[in-house]
Amino acid sequence: MTETSGSNNPRAQRGSHASQPVGKTNNPRLSQPVGASNNPRHSQPVGASRSQPVGPQSSQPLNSVNVPANVVPVLPEGNPYSRAAAGGDYAQDRRRKKRKRIALGALAAVLMLALGGVGMAFAYINQIESNFSEDITPEVQEALEKPADYDGGTFYMLLMGTDKSKEREKGEYAGDTFRSDSMILTRVDPENKKVTMVSLHRDTETEIEGYGMQKLNASYAFGGPAGAIKAVSQMAGVPISHYAEINFDGFKDVVDALGGIEVDVPMEIDDKRAGGHVDAGKQTLNGDQALILCRARHAYDEYGDGDRYRAANQRLVLGAIAKKILSSDVATMASTIEALSQYVTTDFKIADILALANSLQGLDPSKDIYSAMEPTISEYRNETWYEQLDVEAWNTMMNRVKQGLPPTETDQVDELNGTVLASAGDGSGGTSDQETGVQAADGTSTTGKTFGETRTGIVTIKNGNGVNGVGAEALERIKPLGYTADASNANSFSYDETVVVFDTTDQRAYAEELIDALGCGRAVQNKNGEYVYEGDFLILIGSDWK
Q: What is the pTM of this model?
């Protein structure tokens, strides 16, 4: 077990609602996230403020870029993005989905019997599903790269906790635009009963479409759930198929509906701004106590970054809730779902929730839930704290996640207060996105077997770090995939991060496959014509190349 210690945190004097420090300080916080280096880095995610087009600026989409005369356009029958390329594998996926739908029907029937009649259950389910989906907008549906039905495969979802609650809506913050107080990127692998939770720092500076470089939690303020989904998907380089949003009140009532949850609280919490006091040690928490644990930041002021510790506690509570739900009988599960519907917005249907819970029964949170927090480096600028993504550590973490491994190789525990900052579980891992088949927008999977033996298309490789030979190395690494590719120098050697640029959402899976072949990189959609290149994909090699 690896132990890390906290540090004094001048950032911790900020108020609970605003993200501005109370006073100016010249001493940056030095507490390091899991996997971060000790040297401050000021590299920013690829965005309009840093990255430059590889060629002359143009607003043309990828498909309208001028292609050399000697390049023959790819015809539909050879298009790796079509369902026809999947052949029998696609038909097999469809048969699997049909079996899943039968299983969903059986689970719904059990719920109906438990509730005492078909008519009562039908009205009950309709009302709860209406509660769940009340705030789902067309923009949210568009942002989610989701299949038509949940089919039991591995998927990514975004869990969002907002700073909205009944008290805030009626009090001094009435009429405010609420921000996402916490974000957790979650990978769910039902087949292997593995769940990975990566908390994202709300102050992470990232590119938000239409608004430039902003703090990550501003994506919710600007664009609601759809804005947050898009921002996180681009930053993490994964397709987000589902989401759930819960407000502060929800933690309390869901825990009470379950009759409390068993939690080993790492240290005593005494934080009036979080709601009060919670003893340290293993105990059964009621809803109010669980809420205090999930809100507490300033109880950790003397140890370091309060957001980091709070995120760890939120993952702890979510794991305890999952354990209690998965061990509940049908009646308790039904009452819990009813409580959830009052405070949760999600695209999941009740039958899908039951099917997922059934798939995950037997999951042991201590072994099967992996967790960590996004690695960042703090920067104090213009009297405001920002978190700069540690690109190299983040790429390492996300590559592990995509492979089905824990985000970190070992547990990370703060030696001063016992908080588990990262959990590697049993370390065994599940299966990778490629092997398991992460669900894509059209209901097919991203598993390599559905793409066909070889790829047709053109990949442009640009050396953006100035190291001799890296372009040729990239060519060799992607050669087995079958693309037509060439390598040359970029317009600058100052790129920090390797990116694989694609044009349309259905190309993301292929961009991720290229990243797997390269061994590093992040997928970036070329939405506004920021990158100009010939072909189907651009590989821009940065200083993180290994």
A: 0.64
